[in-house]
Each structure stands twice: as C-alpha cells, then as structure tokens.
Amino acid sequence: MRIGQGYDVHRLVEGRRLVLGGVEIPHAKGLEGHSDADVLAHAVADALLGALGQGDLGTHFPSSEARWRGASGETLLDAVLERMERAVLEIENVDSVVVAQEPRLAPHREAIQASLARMLRIEPERVNVKLKSTDGLGAIGRGEGIEARAVALLRERGG
Ligand SMILES: [Zn+2]
After folding, report:
1. Residue numbers of the domain that contains 78
2. 18, 30, 74, 86 - which has most CB atoms within 10 Å?
3. CATH code at position 86
C-alpha cells in the first residue's frame, strides 16, 4: 500500500468557467489558472503522484509550457494514471474535501463524485467528495478562491 496527499487552491475570478472534478458549475465566477484550473482534479492528481513518490503536478505539467494551456483536469489525471499503470499500482480509494464559500456546491456533490470516479476509472464507491465552507473566515471565506485537499491510497494491481 502507498498513501499520498494533495492540496491545491485557485483564485475565483470573473470571466472564467468553474470546473470541479470535471463538472462545470454554473456561477458568475470561475477559477483562474493556466489549465482549466480544476482545483479538485489537481489535488487528487497530486495525491496520486504523492503516493507514487513522483513529485507533483507543477513538476510534470509546468505552467511555463504552452501545451498545458487550458488542459482539462481529465488530461492531467490521464497522464498520472499512466504513471500509476507503469508502476503496477491501482487505486484503493480516494477521499477529498473542497473548501468553498461560494457558490453553494451541495447540489452538485453527487455529480462531482461520479465524474471524478469516471475520470479515475474506478467505481464511485472508491471516491469520496466532501464539501466545506469556512464560516466566512479567511480568503476562502471571503470568496476569493476555492481550495481542495485529497488523499489517495494505492495498492499493487491485483493485490
Ligand atoms: Zn491547480
């Protein structure tokens, strides 16, 4: 078994789409970033890379490289899944938390969880998505951004 944790945060700005776990959420603002800024997919990808002992997203997909401009969370996760396959590891389970003051994400939780499972190519029971607000505290509480954390447990394939 190998465990990894991931963390990511992006700024909420006008004129961007808001994509969480591959699901587009209707909102006046979206997350800013070089890629599609899917903060949840990024945190999960970093948790997987951590479990693999292979650095982080920033190392493998530097925002200095034009080819990653607008890259979807799914594209990044696909590349991480390939690394996992080469290491003969598979996902036991993934747990995650999205921390956001706005918009209200509860109505989208199940869709986000199902989408994340599809992107990770595992059964929905192996993925958990939790939603938190910060009670108005701090930058996230002021609606300046959205944060995501994830842990992933990997096991030997077929083990
Ligand atoms: Zn990110």
Report:
1. 2-156
2. 18
3. 3.30.1330.50
